Every structure is written in C-alpha cells, then in structure tokens.
Amino acid sequence: MTKESLTSWRYSWSQLQGFRQCQAYYRHKWLRFIEKKQRKTALVMGSAVHAFLEVWHKTGSRTGGLKAALAVFKEVDTSSYDQKGMQDFEVSIGIVEGMCEGYRQIHARDLKEYKEVMTELPVATTWDLGHRKVVYRGKIDMVWTDRDGLKWVVETKTASKQAITQGYFERLGYEGQVVSEFWLANKFCGPIEGVIYNVLVKPSIRRKYAKNETQAQFVQRVRDLYLSSETMEDYVIRHPILLSKTTVQEWEDETRDTLKQMDLKRMNKDKLWAKNTGQCLQKWGLCEFADACAKGANTDPSKYNTILYQRTSRDQDELDKIRMTKPWEMVKS
Fold first, then answer.
1. 3-14 per-position pLDDT tens digit
2. What values do phi and psi take at 285, rounded to 5?
3. Which of 62, 164, 204, 308 has the fewest CB atoms within 10 Å, i.e. is most exposed?
4. Which residues in 26-58 are b (16+ Cβ under 10 Å) and which e?
5. In DSSP terms, which residues pair with 34 in a beta bridge?
6. CA distance linking residue 321 with residue 333, whole number of Å
7. What confidence tens digit (pLDDT) does each residue in 184-230 have?
C-alpha cells in the first residue's frame, strides 16, 4: 500500500460508534462530512466547558478559561433564533459561566495536587487489520500525574440530572470511549493507572426574565448552587475507574473487528449504507440526519436540504492538527 492509502483514512471511536449505530448516519457524517447548520445547545455547552478546563488546568487563569469558553458560543450562528431561542441561548451561556466558576473554586486544589497536567492531546496510531494497516486516532481530554507519580486519564462530561440514573457510573468500566482513551493514553504516555470520570451536572434552573434578573445575577445563582454544601456533591462528581486487562482486550478485539468491516466497506466502494430506523428517535430527540434520510439523501446526495445542512471541513481540520502536533503526532502500533 502507498503512504497516502495508509494515512488518508483515519478512524476514531466516534466513527466506530456512529457506524455501529447506523451505517447511513456514518455515511452522512464521516464519508460526506455533512452536519446540521444549527448545533445542539448541549454540544455547544460541552465544548465550552472543555475549552475552559483546558485553559484553566494548563495556566490557572480564570479569565483566560472563561474567555475560551465564551469564544465557543461566539462561533454559533444565532441569526435564525426568535426571542425565546435567544433567551435559551443566553441561559446556556450563564449556566456554563456559573458551572465553570463553581468547578474552579471546588477543585482549586487540582493546580497543586497534580504534578503534571496535559490537556486535549491529539494522538494517532497504526492498527494492522490483516488486509492492511489503518490509522486510529483520538483526543485525550487530560492526563494527570498525581503526587505518587501515577498517571490518570481524566474524561470530562457535562450531563443533565436526568442522565445520572442508577447504573450510570457502573457501566463506565466497559464504556467504549472510556476504554479507547485509556488504550490510546497507554500507548502515548503509559503506564496509566486508570480513568477519572469528571462529571459536571447541568442545573435545571433558568434565568428569571419576568423578575428582570440580570445575566450576572443568574451566573452568581448557578455558581452558588455549585458551591452550596447541600448541593455540591450533586453537581460536581468524580468517579475513579480501574479497567481490567480482560475489558481492554475485549474492547481491542471488538474494535478491530468493526474497523475491518468499515474499512473493507469503504475500500469496496459499497453503495449500500443501511439505515437503522431503530436509532432515528434517540433519548435526546430525533437523529440529526432524520430529515436527510426522509428526503432520500442517503442514496442521493443532491437531496440534502441546504437550509438545514452544510458540508463541513472540521474533520479535515482536526486531522491537520494531529499531523502538525508534536511530539505525539504518531505512536507505534
């Protein structure tokens, strides 16, 4: 195989998850690079929190962290929002500001507790599938080295209170994304002791527009909710996870099998990428490509509604960042 054929297709855990969920979804998102013009608010909030944590853990700067978080919101096109849409958007900004302020004060000791903090690490490795080698890539949220010299992968999530149901943390010991980051981190900067699951729970409170509550007052109310001794443990949760060799080996075997299916399907230029209609309605609402599939865009790309969808270069941009990043551009398989 040529060098280009080895590196031109890069797979990730998100792609594997998408392929397993629905082949049509995978085709829309990763073969055609189609995305909805309007991002879900929950995704914007998650990206903003990650932006804050990356800067704050790296520099200790509250101002720099909040600036990075707000920059994520500034990228959102709000031109189509009505009054309620704009109010909901402002509420999201306020919630993120309050969450970040509360998190910073609760975990101020992190800046002294951990000797080394590496954040947002892009990493890639080759994976031999038998018929050829492919590149498997990912981004590790954070790697912390504690006072005993042990390294931990830190996986940060924002979640609603409704999502933290019974069994939420129990399943994380074999959750694919967690194992993927652990596996990649071991290749890049191992040995890794385990994973710290770092959850910021989004509060359900809203800004009191009818009572003329200002944005600053709302942010303070969210912050106070995080810092209250009565509610603190409900909103900022850390859960350590130790992964067994069996779990990691099972993940590796299953992932290799799915990678092979995906890669052969792409190499053979298959025309059929089947819809899994059982995944059209998801726990957070309709699949983002439900309208595209309903219009027949799965088989005919000219049928995408250009008011709703656009082609994105984000995936290629991420690959370019990985290629340019040193010293973890590529690790040995």
1. 334 345 789 999
2. 125, -165
3. 204
4. bbbbbebebbbebeebeebbbbbbbbbbbbbbe
5. 311
6. 20
7. 999 988 899 999 998 888 888 889 998 999 999 999 999 888 888 67
* Contact present, 142 and 152 (Cβ < 8 Å): no
The encoded tokens of residue 265 equal 């399907």
Indicate whether this model's pTM tops 0.85.
no
Q: What are phi and psi of 32, to 5 degrees?
A: -105, -10
Task: Please identify which residue in the block is written with the tokens 């995704």.
Answer: 43
- Cα 189 to chain center, whole Å? 21
Do 252 and 184 meet the contact criterion of CB atoms below 8 Å apart?
Answer: no
Nearest residue to 122 (alpha-carbon basis) of 101, 138, 144:
138
Q: What letter does residue 210 receive in the DSSP assignment?
A: G
- Give the model confidence (pLDDT) of 49-78 as tens digits: 999 999 998 888 999 999 999 999 998 888
Burial classification of residue 180, based on how many CB atoms lie within 10 Å of its CB (0-12 exposed, 13-18 middle, 19 or more buried): buried
Query: Taking 90 as the threshold, does the pLDDT of residue 80 lie above it?
Result: no
Q: Spell out the domains of the chain, with CATH numbers in brackets.
A: 21-37+252-321 (no CATH), 41-249 (3.90.320)
Residues 176-187, mean pLDDT to the nearest whole number: 93
Residue 124 CA, chain-centre distance (Å), reads 17
Rounded to 5°, the CA angle 322-324-326 comes to: 90
Please report, as a single letter, which amino acid is at residue 41: T
